[in-house]
Automatic annotation (TrEMBL):
A GO CC term attached to the entry: cytosol
Record InterPro entries: Dimeric_a/b-barrel, Dyp_peroxidase
Originating organism: Aquiflexum balticum DSM 16537
Keywords in alphabetical order: Iron, Metal-binding, Oxidoreductase, Peroxidase
UniProt protein name: Dyp-type peroxidase family
Coiled coil start-end: none
Cofactor(s) the record lists: heme b
GO function term, MF aspect, one: peroxidase activity
Superkingdom as given in the UniProt entry: Bacteria
Length: 472
């Protein structure tokens, strides 16, 4: 089925990487009629997926509270997934996501229940930071005109050489949507049907992804398409998806100070850090070059673990890249094929960007180890797109990132983004490095990454936005 790019927001198929300036603006509505007027004025400025802008782009997404505030009919509200309706800070969701201790929502800067209610996320992209300032002023004036309150404005950008703040090349492994390539059979590695990431299309189960819908009598302007399997209902979710947003603050100095204390040399500290990540700082994967990095493999993604490194002697089983994408090796599966198919059903498309000034411009780990701590806040605005919050994002976070017995381990959460703690029942602050004849175990890992905010959003198709703006 061909993708309806003209009805999708552009973020669903591109990251606007050519637009260096970016800001995520969290908004709150004060009046439903005014809010709809705001959306009507904003609508023609939203960048669709069939355009590749060179100067700026606007994208919008809504929380459950925001869609409710815009007077979506009850039948439509109830058709959203339970995870979206309950929200990221629901007590059960906190348990699933590991949001306790340092990561408890009560410590968040935005998104927690005791903070202002977020209704909408406005994503503003511009060709550079100078033009971004102008765009933000225009959007602030537009919001003020309709009584829309700016709660937080979160600046983002890119770091040199596609790195994140710890000094490692990031965002190398990204799922490829098969409908977007001319000859998917020629692509190295697996491609994914659009329904894994965009509603209204078949997914890996050969089913239409679950999507919000409502009785057709509510769609008086006949804006929405019919549901493909329920013709009596209108498909509000078509060409939309769920957007997960988490602000992850990175403590660069604690990270490298800890590794220095575990090592006899800077070279060994970098090696341990690379074991934790699963790639060398330049991005080359340990599975393909376990002894030292290979610049020619810095963006290589064509490798697996089942045959190349089942025991984790090259890339530890508990490393960050094996937890977030086990590829073809899950110890619970008996065959490579079953393992690869199982892992593929939990993928996400990442769209986030770093925030804050880098410790150094080139983020060379040797330099990062030698500098004194500053008071700057820096980290990652983690954004991903999924059609099933529970099966994709929450499953990975709960079963792979934070589960201390992942892959047959005992006390290991993800060494980079996991929640590390000890209590009377559970220990999660260790990292195991398989070796022969004896493995090495590093203990008492602090939390190198702390969650500072988060929320579940829905990013609608363009017809669905028109429905929200015009429904009475």
């Amino acid at each position: 089925m061909a993708l309806e790019l003209n009805d999708m927001q552009g973020l669903l198929i591109r990251g606007f990487g050519n637009l260096q300036g970016a800001q995520y603006v969290l908004l709150n509505f004060s009046d439903a009629v005014q809010a709809k007027g705001y959306l009507k004025e904003l609508f023609p400025l939203i960048t669709p997926a069939n355009e590749k802008p060179t100067d700026h782009a606007l994208q919008v997404a809504f929380t459950y509270e925001g869609i409710s505030f815009l007077q979506m009919p009850v039948e439509g509200l109830e058709s959203f997934s339970r995870e979206f309706r309950e929200g990221m800070t629901d007590t059960h969701r906190q348990f699933v996501l590991g949001d306790s201790g340092d990561n408890d929502p009560k410590n968040w800067e935005w998104g927690s229940p005791d903070k202002d209610v977020i209704h909408m996320l406005l994503m503003v992209f511009s060709e550079n930071n100078e033009t971004l300032v102008e765009k933000l002023k225009t959007e602030k004036d537009r919001a003020d005109k309709y009584g829309v309150n700016v709660l937080h404005s979160l600046p983002s950008g890119f770091l040199q050489n596609h790195k994140e703040h710890f000094g490692f090349r990031d965002d190398i492994s990204r799922p490829i949507i098969e409908e977007l390539v001319d000859n998917p059979e020629k692509i190295t590695g697996i491609t994914f049907p659009a329904g894994e990431f965009i509603m209204g299309y078949k997914n890996l189960y050969d089913e239409f992804s679950p999507a919000p819908k409502l009785p057709k009598e509510y769609d008086k302007n006949d804006l929405l398409p019919l549901c493909p399997e329920e013709p009596g209902l209108k498909d509000f979710g078509k060409n939309g998806t769920y957007l997960i947003f988490r602000q992850l603050e990175q403590d660069v100095f604690t990270f490298w100070e800890f590794l220095k204390n575990q090592s006899k040399s800077e070279e060994e500290a970098i090696k341990i850090a690379s074991k934790m990540v699963g790639r060398w700082p330049d991005g080359s994967p340990l599975t393909l070059c376990p002894v030292k990095n290979d610049p020619e493999l810095s963006i290589s993604n064509n490798f697996g673990f089942w045959e190349e490194d089942k025991a984790g002697l090259k890339c530890p089983i508990g490393s960050h890249i094996r937890r977030t994408n086990p590829r073809d090796h899950l110890v619970t599966e008996k065959t490579k094929k079953d393992s690869a198919e199982m892992a593929s059903k939990h993928r996400m498309i990442r769209k986030g960007r770093p925030y804050g000034n880098p410790v150094t411009d080139d983020l060379n780990p040797v330099d990062l180890m030698s500098l004194s701590k500053d008071d700057e806040k820096r980290g990652l605005h983690f954004i991903c797109l999924v059609t099933d919050i529970r099966r994709q994002f929450e499953f990975v976070q709960n079963n792979w990132v934070n589960f201390h017995k992942f892959g047959g381990l005992d006390h290991d959460a993800d060494p980079i983004i996991g929640n590390h703690f000890q209590n009377s029942e559970v220990i999660t602050d260790e990292f195991s490095i398989p070796d022969y004849p004896v493995k090495r175990k590093i203990k008492n890992l602090p939390n190198f990454t702390i969650t500072k905010g988060g929320s579940y959003f829905f990013i609608p198709g363009l017809k669905a936005i028109q429905f929200l703006a015009n429904h009475e």
